Amino acid sequence: MAFGDYPVEYNPKVHGPYDPARFYGKADVPFGQVKLGEIGAWLGRRNKTPNAVAGAVSRAWWRWQHKYVFPKRAGIAPFFQLTVASMTFFYMINYTKLKHHRNYKYH
């Protein structure tokens, strides 16, 4: 699959219009229904290639947009979510510099 192509598993005659938020591969047990003893086997069945990880991130992005950004009466929630996510990201990347400014009690 090259950049901009449809997934190999996608068949327009079977699936209808393409939805970037949908996984077109073989269906598996959802993570919420996996028993503790089956977690290793379930993780072993995951595709861990960079293309698969990029596809999963892309699907998550599209699902988030369909839920919070694209509705007709979208609220202010996506702006707050992006703000909190960016604040958390920048705090994490600057943590080594910020930890030197802690206030300590010297008693």
Automatic annotation (TrEMBL):
InterPro entries: F1F0-ATPsyn_F_prd
Location of the protein in the cell: Mitochondrion membrane
Any one Gene Ontology BP term: proton motive force-driven mitochondrial ATP synthesis
Pfam family, any one: WRW
GO CC, alphabetical: mitochondrial membrane; proton-transporting ATP synthase complex
Keyword annotations: ATP synthesis, CF(0), Hydrogen ion transport, Ion transport, Membrane, Mitochondrion, Transmembrane, Transmembrane helix, Transport
Listed transmembrane segments: 74-93
GO MF annotation list: proton-transporting ATP synthase activity, rotational mechanism
Signal peptide: none
Highest rank taxon of the organism: Eukaryota
Annotated family: Belongs to the ATPase F chain family.
Protein name: ATP synthase subunit f, mitochondrial
Organism of derivation: Drosophila gunungcola (fruit fly)
